């Protein structure tokens, strides 16, 4: 299995410790990488890849979302691939950045009646797949991406986050 090196940083917000986030990310991203390596659609690098996980608050996320997506509101997770890539293409050694907002994750977890850790795990997987070019802008893309998310979360012993929902998520 290819190695994933990642940097965890807490910029803002009341997050668990960096050590706790690092341990969770290692478990989640390892499962995600294993599923992607076995998927016939995806090419996965045999050498180490890198990414950063940035944990912040809604205020900072709102500013990032406004600057980069022209949406003046907080969102749960944003991914910034280091290089443009389509699903199935070989990624470079640097995958990119995943940014996650604390208050939104916490609120959504309550609304979904899931634990904070379970929802955070889902968002890590979701952001990771975006770095590999997966998206959910139309139903065909959403079906593929959400199918992968569901498979990865099942490996982690977590429930299907899309059960009973329409496919396409908010862009």
UniProtKB/TrEMBL annotation:
Protein's job: Single strand-specific metallo-endoribonuclease involved in late-stage 70S ribosome quality control and in maturation of the 3' terminus of the 16S rRNA.
Binding of Zn(2+): at which residues?
126, 130, 136
Gene that this sequence comes from: ybeY
Gene Ontology MF terms in the entry: metalloendopeptidase activity; RNA endonuclease activity; zinc ion binding
Cofactor binding remark = Binds 1 zinc ion.
Q: Which domain of life is it from?
A: Bacteria
Q: Which GO terms describe its cellular component?
A: cytoplasm
The record ties this protein, via InterPro entries, to:
MetalPrtase_cat_dom_sf_prd (IPR023091), YbeY (IPR002036), YbeY_CS (IPR020549)
PROSITE patterns documented for this protein: UPF0054
Protein name in the entry: Endoribonuclease YbeY
Cofactor(s) demanded = Zn(2+)
Family indicated by similarity: Belongs to the endoribonuclease YbeY family.
Listed EC numbers: 3.1.-.-
């Amino acid at each position: 299995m290819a190695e994933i090196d990642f940097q965890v940083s807490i910029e803002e917000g009341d997050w668990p410790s960096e050590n706790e986030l690092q341990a969770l990310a290692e478990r989640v991203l390892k499962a995600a990488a294993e599923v992607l390596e076995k998927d016939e659609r995806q090419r996965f690098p045999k050498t180490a890849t890198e990414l950063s996980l940035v944990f912040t608050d809604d205020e900072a996320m709102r500013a990032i979302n406004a600057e980069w997506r022209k949406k003046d509101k907080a969102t749960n997770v944003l991914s910034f691939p280091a290089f443009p890539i389509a699903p199935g293409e070989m990624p470079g050694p640097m995958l990119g950045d995943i940014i996650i907002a604390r208050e939104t994750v916490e609120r959504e977890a309550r609304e979904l009646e899931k634990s904070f850790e379970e929802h955070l795990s889902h968002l890590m997987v979701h952001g990771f797949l975006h770095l590999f070019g997966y998206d959910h802008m139309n139903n065909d893309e959403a079906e593929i991406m959400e199918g992968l998310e569901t498979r990865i979360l099942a490996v982690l012993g977590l429930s299907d986050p899309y059960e009973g929902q329409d496919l396409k998520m908010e862009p």
